[in-house]
Amino acid sequence: MTISVLIADDQAMVRAGFAALLDAHDGIRVAGQAAHGAEAVTLAARLDPDVILMDVRMPEIDGIEATRRILGPAYPAAHVPRVLMLTTFDIDDYVYDALEAGASGFLLKDALPEELVQAVRVVAGGDALLAPSVTRRMIEQFAGRRPRTPRAAAALAGLTDREREVLVLIGRGRSNSEIASDLFIAEQTVKTHVGKVLAKLSLRDRVHAVILAYDAGLVEPAS
Question: In sequence order, which residues have a C-beta less than 8 Å from that of residue 93 and are 6 or more positions away?
Fold first, then answer.
């Protein structure tokens, strides 16, 4: 299946560079480009992309607000896209707002070309966390700013013991293969459990499963 991508960035050279890089890879097609957040919102509704590369800082409306609108319940799209935020800084307060807005991950703008391509594939599949060098640290800091919520803990009631174990390991940043090794089960079985966890908890992807694991107290920072 071809992954369709919308690129939203206020710098024309950045958009052109990302588009050329992504279009050169099989299975990825750049469906459109937006120069600011408002245009990203409009094009996302019209083009219905699988993934949106969204710059944080843009004119008119920024990438955070654009993400909120695109991922909001009233948005007129055939399916909900995955939003990959692009940030210039290793630790950027905007990233926390992006997570709350529903972004599926984030990537530094100075990432290697192959890292960008892989990030798009990963986000499209909702299969793993992004930017390994910063993701865990960012989410820990993000979670540390939020109070524990009874609602998050109550959401776990419908999980089986095995699904709860899988959620804990997701929260600790484990990949499917690592979870399979930890629990002595097949990787395909892990994928099934992960899918059920996301469905039961109404989570968009693994990034938000990690956040819920912290919010519910299943995982502690640096655990």
Answer: none
Nearest to 116 by CA among 124, 107, 105: 107
The whole-angstrom separation of Cα 123 and Cα 60 is 26
Note whether residue 223 is domain-resident.
Answer: no
* Block residue for tokens 């109404």: 202
In a domain, 222, yes or no: no
| 151: alpha, beta or left? (left if phi > 0; alpha if psi -120 to 50) | alpha
* pLDDT tens, residue by residue, 140-180: 666 666 666 676 777 888 999 999 999 999 888 788 888 99
Phi and psi angles of residue 179, each rounded to the nearest 5 degrees, phi first = -65, -40
Query: What global pTM score does this model have?
Result: 0.74
Instruction: Retrieve residue 81's tokens.
Output: 């896209």
- Note the helical H segments in 126-175: 135-144, 150-154, 161-171
Say which residue the tokens 């109070």 belong to.
Answer: 147
Tens of pLDDT, residue by residue over 19-44, are 999 999 999 999 999 999 999 999 99
Strands (DSSP E) along the chain, which ranges? 3-8, 28-34, 51-55, 82-87, 105-108
Note whether residue 221 is domain-resident.
Answer: no
